Amino acid sequence: MKFIEDEPDLPAQINIVSTIDVIFAILAFFIISSLFLSRNEGLPVNLPQADRAEIQEAAPVAITVTADSAIFVGDEVVELDDLQTEVLRALDLANTDLVVLNADASIRHGLAIAIIDRLRSLDNVRLAIATQSEPTP
User: Fold this and answer.
1) How high is the pLDDT of residue 45?
2) What domains, with CATH codes, occur in the chain?
């Protein structure tokens, strides 16, 4: 048996291209999955802005009033006359006492006052009004 010693030795190499592909795939997975971790409460409305907005820690019952004055408790449309009954039912299901009013900035002032007045007549219910912080220039 004859050995050929004239062949040059190839330097050892580590191919990291496949490792980089795996790392980018994992990174993309975590970035995309983190987008679904945010909690949406209610329907999309144009919230008014406030300088002194505070974040509420409890999981509240959301009342949403859209620009066309439709009232929602959670995802269900309710009439103003049935609001108190539906809110009490939702509070019992959620086991909380916090109600957040997500009202579009363009709704009538009278409608917002009517909703707040009906909610304030309920015993042991805390009311919060959702706003958005003013964007910093």
Assistant:
1) 66
2) 49-133 (3.30.420.270)
